[in-house]
DNA sequence: AGACGTATTGCATTCGAATGCAAACCGCAA
DNA sequence: TTGCGGTTTGCATTCGAATGCAATACGTCT
């Protein structure tokens, strides 16, 4: 009775019937029947390293091919408790930095047999529901390139879903992190600007809740203080192009004492800044105003900008993130890891001697 | 024996134990036990529109909350034959147009309870394996914003996976398509340029295998012929920034007879073109050379470019694509649908009177 | 109270693949 | 031939939720 799955179906049409049996996809039972073996045998033939004789494997694979059988990932996930899905969270506001990361992550993940369940997150509420979704789908791990609250992270921990943060972290929690530390390059950049004679600096921050942006500006500030630069004006941006232009206006309300060098927490704002400087304030970059950014996004190197910026080694960072999540999908209880990468200065033409 | 799932487990610790029972997630059985009802009752409480009394629903939901129970999407998918996953295929080469589409699609899909299984596709071989993957995961549908071969499409058809093409289609197959037809805008644009006195045109094509790029250039050519413009030079690009610059060089090998107006099959190439014109050929845009593009990507409106371009109503197109795929996930056997959207001219400052 | 109709609930089975265990098989040596 | 060790194979069960069907509870009317 319980064993009766094999051939107590209503008398079939031809045994070697069409690939799609009555519109349904072929199952391991169909293959087993056609090959004249048990369902378990079929299953084993698709599991690398299982104990199967050559003869058997051959017969099964032939039958499988004939029926166009592919193991059902859903059923497999149910029994193995591994979905082979990784949730990837990216911020939706179009930062042009995220897509690059996202595509790289996707490629790397697929190399190790993991699929991307994509979520865009724009607010903490979004993140809330994303976590529920990810949980429902039994994801094997989660890579977050967007903001998560501590409570949300703790929830993931409790549910033992491995998490890797991409370019963000908590100061008061140990987590898996892939991170780019631009310290050395910030120093070099600031030294360079100071040597160029800049004494009045403008800094454009990222959104308040963003660690990376905050950290970048902090490093710049510290470096400037080391060089005894006193005139530092900071204004708030939100990583978007428009906010870069607006921030520049704010920095230049008193034209006489405006900064001669501006460092933006990301490239996108730097571009906004350059455009605003040229087209509205009618300043020459870099002769009248030096501008630098962070990230090294593709368009920062377009001929119109040639921005000097501190680039992240995105490719290697994505590889690292995937390696970390894959390892933890395999063996969930590994200790947290923190991989820090160096940045690199991308020499553009957006900085020069102070006017 | 067969019924023995309910309480023949080894004697449990406390019945109202921790949310994660021995590290495992709570199942509907756990909830049922805690609430003192059957598993089916729990299932029904999570199915909208099922027949459940208020009393029961209350008890179950309370128990579920206590155990932090969420239905397991994998198990549900197995039995219902619906995964609630939609495969989204985008081209990986960084076109800056895809990310925008991708994020929009993701948002819209999540509104109707569908999740995105993301795949990047750079070659036909990629597509091959993507289709296998999608099939393994029993996706409820597939939205393709990248190239698929006819054979691949036919395979999806045979497996009765609903497919919606985004901005591409076959001329010899009926498919579900969401598409932007820029005909009217192309006419208007060409008329405008001709009125501006342009007589020598350069056209920069997209990659050979791309329908949309081809179609755009075809429409432009036809419009130009209608206006009796004879001097049309076409060169090949591949949608990237760099190829735009290279194409411009090609068009200007004989400076004396170079085009005075250039239309590019997408914005990205138009930007490359503008930059090349300004920084290498030292031409003024738009006074020496008019340039126009297609897409209306965000950066085409940056102050450095202010490109005149034909925009796609991406938002509405994504909504349409999602509506189509959602409907077909629900009822697979609907006839194919073809939704065509109008473009819109985005007035920039990149075109002017012929020199 | 009894009869009937409707709204709830539970039982048992199902989806498709993986796997522990036992049975069957093979080869080889005694 | 028998016996032993190792390899293949199959049996039966499992994962977690959904659902057709039968059984029960509940309410209403006579």
Mean pLDDT of chain A, as a whole number? 88
Text of the CATH class of the largest domain in chain A: Alpha Beta
- Please give the count of helices of chain A: 12
CATH architecture of the largest domain in chain A: 3-Layer(aba) Sandwich
Estimated helix fraction of chain A: 40-55%
Major β-sheet of chain A, in short? Answer: 6 strands, parallel
Shape call of chain A: elongated
Give the radius of gyration of chain A.
Answer: 27 Å
The CATH homologous superfamily name of the largest domain in chain A equals Response regulator
Computed structural class of chain A: alpha/beta
Order of strands in the sheet with most strands of chain A: 2-1-3-4-5-11
Percentage of residues in DSSP E strands of chain A: 15-25%
Oligomer, anyone? homodimer
Query: Can you tell me the number of structural domains of chain A?
Result: 3
């Amino acid at each position: 009775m319980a064993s009766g799955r094999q051939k107590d179906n209503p008398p079939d049409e031809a045994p070697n019937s069409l690939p799609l049996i009555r519109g349904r996809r072929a199952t391991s039972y169909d293959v087993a029947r056609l090959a004249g073996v048990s369902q378990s045998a079929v299953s084993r033939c698709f599991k690398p390293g299982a104990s199967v004789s050559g003869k058997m494997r051959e017969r099964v694979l032939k039958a499988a091919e004939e029926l166009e059988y592919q193991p059902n990932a859903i059923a497999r996930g149910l029994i193995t408790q591994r979905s082979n899905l990784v949730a990837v969270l990216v911020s939706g506001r179009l930062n042009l930095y995220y897509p690059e990361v996202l595509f790289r992550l996707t490629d790397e993940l697929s190399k190790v047999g993991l699929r991307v369940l994509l979520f865009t997150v724009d607010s903490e509420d979004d993140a809330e529901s994303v976590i529920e979704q990810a949980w429902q789908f039994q994801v094997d791990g989660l890579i977050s390139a967007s903001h998560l609250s501590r409570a949300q992270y703790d929830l993931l921990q409790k549910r033992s879903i491995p998490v890797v943060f991409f370019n963000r972290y908590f100061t008061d929690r140990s987590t898996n992190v892939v991170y780019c530390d631009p310290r050395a390059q910030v120093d070099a950049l600031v030294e360079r600007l100071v040597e160029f004679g800049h004494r009045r600096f403008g800094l454009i921050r990222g959104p308040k809740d963003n660690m990376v942006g905050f950290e970048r500006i902090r490093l710049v500030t510290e470096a400037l203080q080391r060089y005894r630069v006193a005139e530092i004006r900071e204004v708030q941006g939100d990583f978007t192009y428009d906010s870069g232009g607006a921030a520049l206006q704010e920095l230049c309300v008193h034209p006489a004492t405006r900064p001669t060098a501006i460092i933006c927490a990301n490239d996108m704002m730097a571009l906004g800044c350059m455009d605003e400087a040229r087209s509205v304030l009618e300043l020459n970059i870099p002769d009248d105003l030096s501008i630098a950014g962070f990230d090294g996004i593709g368009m920062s190197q377009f001929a119109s900008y040639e921005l000097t910026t501190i680039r992240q080694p995105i490719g290697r960072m994505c590889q690292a993130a995937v390696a970390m999540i894959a390892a933890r999908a395999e063996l969930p209880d590994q200790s947290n890891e923190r991989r820090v990468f160096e940045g690199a200065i991308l020499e553009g033409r957006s900085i020069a001697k102070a006017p």
